[in-house]
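Table S7 (text form). Paired inputs.
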Amino acid sequence: MSAITFNVTFSVKDILRDPRIRKALRDREDAHLKNIDWLDEDLAEKRHLENIAWLDEDLTEKRHLENIAWLDEDLTEKRHLENIQLLDEDLAEKYQMKKDERRGGYDEQKCDARIWLDGLDNVQCSFNKKGGCFCKRHQNLSDKNSGVWWLGKINKPRPENPYGPPHLPEMRNGKRTHVRIHKWINSKP
């Protein structure tokens, strides 16, 4: 058998006028558009999942940073409270030393006023005398009380159950002040 070859030339307009060719091209274009829609949906879903993953990482990091900030604040507060406690202990120790140092001794250069220090007797004012036997403050306060200091002089017997201080009103702004009967810690003068 011998082969026969034909050379046929068709114009594009003639080919596109054929309804079978046009239907085939339309079907192919529809399939192509469906594929593009599917790819767009798939890409949008992948982007959405990537965004969710990124947001989850960002949220985790923010929570982590918030937790770190909260822990830092908590640690700072605990350190602050520990420092306050240490300062309170140190201050109490120094205060006790100061009370012990000031108790019972008599310094002729200092004011003769016995002062109230948590009920301890024989605690002398630490200010220097001004002219008489008292410092300026205690002299003024004793002058207001007929020349008598309500806790007495350090070099004289202490008053039992002193009532005062007389220079304070019993009520101030509707609140009770420290004017009351004071009790010494130790019972012997």
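Next pair, protein 2 of 2.
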Amino acid sequence: MHRFLPALLVTTSLLNLALPAGAADRSSKPEAERINVSATDWPWWRGPNRDGIAAANQTPPLHWSETENVVWRSPVPGRGHGSPTIVGNQVFLATCDEEEELQSVLCYDRKTGSQLWKTDVHKGQVEKNEHGQTVFRGYPAALAEMFRLYVDEGALAPLVAELRKWNWEWSYSDYLLELTARLQETRDWPLLKTLWLAVVAKRRTNYNKTRKARKSLPDKIPDELVTKTQGLLLESLQRLQEYASELGQAADVTEYGEMTTRVEQCRQA
């Protein structure tokens, strides 16, 4: 399963890509009002300049305890994975009630810690990753809409550039498979190859790391896990070679056929 930055207030890098030509004509909505922030705000992920650096000439505390350098405390319902967002006198937090499968945004007073409001933003469909851990995703609708816009506009190159960075070690998503199908339809072998070489590389790394861990920690890493990662790698290699063959590019992936043979030999050893 691919992994997103698990915070409701974090915007995926996919949404930061430039819109395809003509996409702006598809919406009649007025341009959003610009958010005014100050140097002491922390308005989005990694701070004002998105580099993790706060404004200079401040004296933040370097030590904490139950009582030292604690201005206020406030209970936060559920479980959150996102860092606070601070604008003016308001602190925003993302949280999720796992039992209710309810994702919410909370707002607290920056000076007193009192809760100002709570807005529920998504209910149901809380997903779990390959380890059985709950995954909170705050922007599935926005992501789906943006993906559809890029596909409809034929802007496949930026989608390939984005999706090739996702983690495909354990499974594929509908985004990957639909983009693959569209690249097959347009017979764009360079983009299709770029996308699936990235998938193969991630699964190869996962397989090699699992094998190494099995040798170092045989009591903790079961042989079944090595077999699983091996099978996943072989499956991605098979897909790559099938796509190449369909587009008359089999000679372009000869080395990956050789890799397939080596991995299969390891399975039989």
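Residues 7 and 82 are 4 Å apart (CA to CA).
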